[in-house]
């Protein structure tokens, strides 16, 4: 196949990779439906993909991964900056030359027996001034089809690359060459010790080897749009954040824009697609995972979603909890590690749909009464099973979601999963305290990463711990600097926790009911309601969050709103120890905020 571009940089890079990886053939992708259908047909033919029931799930497919390749692996993720101090304590660092040497050995001959796909894609609307043009080279047709949904794959991107003579090179291989005549397996990948998710921020380069899983293999997402982009943003004065973006519209038609950062599997997709229970108020979805934000000419902060689809957590997604996500799954989707039913539909835990039997994510016959080795129900879908859905399928998608100018952010929200201590909602006294709240956010671990070990709680600054492409201290300072630039145009900052538990489970009903909390935030933005001062921040006055119709006792509400000073004092001590790891890159403003919080708690 002759190359459909004249850009010499790109031709040279593709030739170099081809020489190193020695694929059987090279295919340049164009993002067409014909290409998608052809690759899917090939994968169905080889048994990698299952074509789902055309009546129930038109144009949709299911995949099961290798049991070892189900999530991101933070221990195998590297920020290989030239200077070690540019990587920082939240990242694994290796000298870039050394890492390239190690990985070049792995890449040598790694595509034998496979096709090398060259994918031109844009993060953000093609041609928009905020968008980035990139090329992913991969030997995985699963990656190509997922990239079709998650990014804008198009030959138009090649034209822009020719014009600008710039692209972000992203190299991916599953790391599983085939011997002459060897039959491929269902999900090729390399053993954990050979997996590398590598970033070279000084040259905007991504090298990923050995994993086929989303966050490790769809390189436009976490690798480009967060790790490489956050490093660029830090240098250039904008922001690349692990945030959903939504528009909340009042009955009078006033629009409020919210960007919210929760760690992986902590509720971004759900909040982004929320069905408001506040009469007359409505949510429109703009993005569910990543926000790129720049200051506009009017001084405000404008956000775009660089993605084109949702790579969402399947378990717990149901018509009751997230009807907009369920509707997005009606057609044109890819499912990974879910249960496939005998009539070729999909199922997962807490979907609230009855099931008699199916094939589980490990490809075994499965029934819902089966137990694991501990006597607990044997899950049919992996806890980190995912759907890949086009954003255009979502009924709540905002008409302006692809506006290259973005939307002006009024409200930042931080949060995480905390079964105790952290109240339902509080507001920062000012932007600086808001940055402190984001920087000291914490959460209980989820199934979205493989190797977080047995920790019960981890600090997760801005929900970005696994995604900061540079030194976390410099990154925190960048947040303070943005605050200074934005001045009185900076968004108001809030912290939420939907996840407090008592003996009966979650205290707060969550999901659609979270709109009641969003409504309070909008009232605060408009100065319509006051707030009471507490040691940790501003909290709602009684009655300002409408609780009509909720099955919530006065006791339960008190628990949800309690500021447990002793527990917070312990957190301050933990935060000090955690932040000490940033050494002399810890912003002075962070220490100042810690001292102030401690003083308020002791007052
Ligand atoms: P990533 O895609 O990994 O970045 O995650 P995400 O933040 O988009 O997470 P998602 O919205 O998929 O949430 C994952 C989990 O949080 C699921 O188990 C949800 O059911 C649960 N969840 C989300 N919102 C709520 C809520 O308001 N209350 C409760 N109890 N659970 C929630
Ligand atoms: C996350 O883990 O935060 C995700 C899923 O959004 S993945 O893209 O696989 O990292
Ligand atoms: Mn995410």
UniProtKB/TrEMBL annotation:
Mn(2+) binds at residues 222, 242, 289. The keyword Metal-binding applies. It holds the Pfam family PEPCK_N. Keywords: Cytoplasm, Decarboxylase, Gluconeogenesis, GTP-binding, Lyase, Manganese, Metal-binding, Nucleotide-binding. Its EC number is 4.1.1.32. Pathway: Carbohydrate biosynthesis; gluconeogenesis. Monomer. NCBIfam families: PRK04210.1. This is Phosphoenolpyruvate carboxykinase [GTP]. It comes from Pontiella agarivorans. The gene is pckG.
